[in-house]
Design a protein that fits this description.
Elements lengths: L2 H23 L5 E6 L8 H5 L2 H4 L1 E15 L4 E19 H16 L3 E10 L2 E10 L7 E2 L4 H8 L4
Length: 160
């Protein structure tokens, strides 16, 4: 491995650690709202793994403008985009037990190359503020124009 490669790898690891630390410097409060667009959506792999049906409150499915959805193979990424939008499920995590699940999701995402961004979540009759996990670098992979990961998996006949 060349010295240049080492610096690049170190830089990414350092960046992820800084992002993770910053996310926990913020006051957590008594609840956390997340806009989940990939494998954490209802019926998909990480949703089942974290048992989100029983460990969070589903508030609804929305479309969030300003992001494009990309396929990274077995999972997706979003990245800021002027003309894109992404379909996401809004989930509320409250109470000690549910916030522990949220922390586990946060850990998985932040060390997987994502960071938190706060977004407005417009549900019917409610406007809330929550987080979405955004990929650290713009993916050089397939853009999913309709912005719906669950639909993409069905269209491509890929495992959920």
């Amino acid at each position: 491995m060349s010295q240049e490669t080492d610096r690049t790898l170190y830089g990414r690891v350092f960046h992820r650690n800084v992002c993770w630390q910053r996310s926990y410097e913020r006051a957590e409060g008594e609840e956390l709202l997340m806009a989940l667009y990939g494998s954490l959506r209802n019926g998909l792999y990480n949703n089942r793994r974290f048992d989100l049906q029983n460990r969070s409150e589903f508030l609804g499915t929305i479309k969030i403008d300003g992001y494009s959805l990309y396929s990274l193979g077995p999972y997706p990424a979003v990245y800021p985009s002027e003309k894109g939008s992404v379909v996401a499920e809004v989930r509320r995590f409250s109470g000690k037990r549910q916030l522990e699940v949220a922390k586990s999701i946060d850990y998985m995402e932040l060390f997987g190359g994502y960071h938190r961004e706060y977004v407005d979540l417009e549900l019917p009759e409610k406007k809330l503020r929550g987080i979405i996990y955004v990929y650290d670098e713009k993916p050089e992979t397939e853009v999913i124009d309709h912005g719906d990961w669950a639909r993409y998996l069905k269209e491509k006949e890929l495992p959920e």
